[in-house]
Amino acid sequence: MAEEEDKTTIEFGGMSFTGGKAMVLVTALSTLGGASWGAFEFYADYMNMKEIIENIDTDAIAARNDVIETKLDEAIDYSRSIKNDLRDDFNRMEKNVDRIEDQNRNMQDEVREMIDKASERFDTKRESLQLDTESQRTEVRELRYGSRRRKRKRNHDRVWWNVVYRR
After folding, report:
1. 100 lies in a domain?
2. Is residue 137, in this structure, part of any structural domain at all?
3. 109 within a domain of the structure (yes/no)
4. Most exposed: 16, 90, 104, 166, by fewest CB within 10 Å?
5. Number of folded domains that form the chain
């Protein structure tokens, strides 16, 4: 019995608890106290939020939303206008580029045609010059050979003269 008197005894609600049971009772009571404190804090936060919610001016929020929607609609219209203007500018530039490409193509065709005509004229002139050169060469040859032939003929005639008449 002396050992039983050394053990700590806790009485709660007309019941007595010793040892490990006492520790379970202390843990249960502290858990119950913590839960009560948490519930009280939650209720206090709820009451504060209820007061804040009751004081919110929904008309001001609705008016502010309307202003934001109006500005948003204006921004959308402005963006659409910019998009359409850009598309028109792009189409105009594309037409200009097409026109310039056509002009460039026509100019290239004209230049090629001019080059071909010039080439034909140059070829004709070259052929004419070649013919003139050939005819001049022929004339020069004829003159050279003709004078040689005349010299030979003169020499031949002299020889005959000397042979026929000097004898």
Report:
1. no
2. no
3. no
4. 166
5. 1
* Residue 114 placed within a domain: no
pTM of the model: 0.41
Is the Cα dihedral 64, 66, 69, 73 positive or negative? negative
Q: HEC states along the chain?
A: CHHHHHCCEEEECCEEEECHHHHHHHHHHHHHHHHHHHHHHHHHHHHHHHHHHHHCCHHHHHHHHHHHHHHHHHHHHHHHHHHHHHHHHHHHHHHHHHHHHHHHHHHHHHHHHHHHHHHHHHHHHHHHHHHHHHHHHHHHHHHHHHHHHHHHHHHHHHHHHHHHHCC
Would you give per-residue pLDDT tens digits along the chain (167 residues)?
445 555 677 776 777 777 777 788 788 889 999 999 999 999 999 999 988 888 888 888 899 999 999 999 999 999 999 999 999 999 999 999 999 999 999 999 999 999 999 999 898 888 888 888 888 878 777 776 666 666 666 676 666 666 666 55
Structure token digits, residue 134: 């050939």
Q: Which residues contact 16 (CB under 8 A, 6 or more apart)?
A: 9, 10
Distance CA 138, CA 144 (A): 10
Domain assignment of residue 4, given as a range: 1-56
